[in-house]
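Notes to self after the call with IL:
- keep both proteins in one doc
- input above output, always
- annotate only the second one for now

Protein 1:
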Amino acid sequence: MADTYEKLLEDTIEISAPAEQVWSLVTDIPAMAKWSPQVVKSSVKGGVVKQGATFSNLNKQGLKRWPTGGKVVRFQPPTATTPGEFAFRIRENRTVWSFELEPTADGRTRLTERRETPEGISGVSMLLTKVVLGGQKPFTAELRRGIRQTLERIKAEAEAGA
C-alpha cells in the first residue's frame, strides 16, 4: 500500500489582539523556533521578510535534524477590515505553509495555519518521511499537533503583548 498524505492540514485559534500585532509575530521567520516545535532555527537571506524573500530552516524530530529552504509566496498584511495572508513554499517537499489573519469586529484576530500540497509532495520527501520520520500517518499526526502548539504559542505571545 502506498504511503499517502493529507493534502490539507489546518487549525484555527482566536486571539485577543489586533491583526496587525499578530501579523508582526507570524511574519517574524527568525522567531518561528519559539512557536513551532519542529523548527530549531530560521534565518532570512538579507534579513528582511517580504514577498519573494528566501530563508533557511533547521528542523527537528527528536534527535534527528534536517535543513530546508523556503520562499515567501504570499505577503498581504491585514487591515482593520480585510484579512491578511503570509505564506511560504518549502523547496525540498513543495508544501506551502500559510497563516491567514482575519480581524474580527471586536478587535480580535482569527488566525488559521495551513499546510497545503498544491503540487503534491516530492518523491524524495515521501521516501524520507517513510524511512526516517516514521511514515506519513504518524508524521502527519505530529504536524497536526505542531500546528496546534504553534497557534497556542503565538496566541500566548500576542495576548501577553496586547
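Protein 2 (the one to annotate):
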Amino acid sequence: MIEIKKKKMLFSRNREVIFLLLFFFSFTFYGQNSTFWKKSDTLNKKRRNAVIISESILGLGTLVALDQLWYADFPRSGFHFINDNNEWKQLDKVGHMMTSYYIGRAGMEVLHWSGVKKKDQLIYGATLGFTFLTAIEVLDGFSKRWGASFGDILANAGGTGLLVGQELIWKEQRITMKYSFHQTEFSQRRPNVLGKNFIEQSLKDYNGQTYWLSANIWSFNKNSNFPKWLNIAFGYGADGMLYGTESVTNLISQDPFRQYYLSLDLDLTKINTKSKFLKSVFSVINFIKIPAPTLEIDSKGRFKFHYLYF
C-alpha cells in the first residue's frame, strides 16, 4: 500500500508528462501514418471504426487516469473559472495552442487514412485537440486548487482554428507551429517550479521555450524554383521569469520581458528521400524548429543576432 501511494504521488507531481507522451504519440502516429500506411481512396469502415475505438480508449483512459492519479490528491470544489491570462507572458497559452494544433492534425490524418471524406475529417478529426484539452479544463474547473481557464480554452480553439482554417483556404498546412528549447539559469534558482532536469525544464521553464510559426515559402508560389524545404519562421518567447506574475509577494526579484524572433527553418517532410524510415523520422520530428541564424528583438527594444538559436 505504501508503494502504491509513492507511485501515485510521483505521478501526480509530473502531470505534464502525460501531455508530453500524448504530444509525441500524435506525432509518431501521424508520421507513421503518412509514410508506411497506404491511405484508402474510399471509406474503409474497419479502419474508421478502429480509429474511433482507439481514440476513445486513449482519450477516456487518459482523462480517468488524470482524475484518479492527479486530481484525487487535491480537494474538489464546485465548477469555477480562474483568470490566469497574465501568467508566464502567455507562453503557457501558446503551448496549449500548439498541442491542440498537432493532436487535431493527427486526428484529421488518421481519418484521412480511413477514407473519411474531407468535411468529416475537419469536423471529427481536426477538433480532437480542442475537445480533449477542453475536457481537461473541465476537470480543472472542479478542482479547488486550480479552475477552468478561459484563456486556455481560447488557446485550444486557436490551435484548432489554425489547422482548420488552412485546410479550408489552401487544402494544406502551409504554416505550422514549431517548438525549440534551451536550458537557462532560472531553473537552477527555482528547480521545484521550473524543473530539476532537462525533461522537466523543457516542460516547465518557459524562459527556455520558444514557439514558432514556420511558413513554407515554396507552397505560396509552387511554380517557382524556390527550395521546397526552406521555411521562414517567426518566434515568440520570454525571459527573466522566476514566477508566473510580477507581485510584491515574490521572494526573489525578477525582470521579465518578451522576445520576438525572425529565423530560417526547414520543412523536413519536403526533403526528397526514397527512404521510408527517414520520411517517418522527418514527419515525427518536424515539430522541432531547426537551429538557424536568428534575429531577436525584445520588449525593451534591444536587438540581438544569434548565429545558431535553439
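Annotation: The first helix runs from residue 2 to 12. The chain has two domains: 1-173, 174-310.
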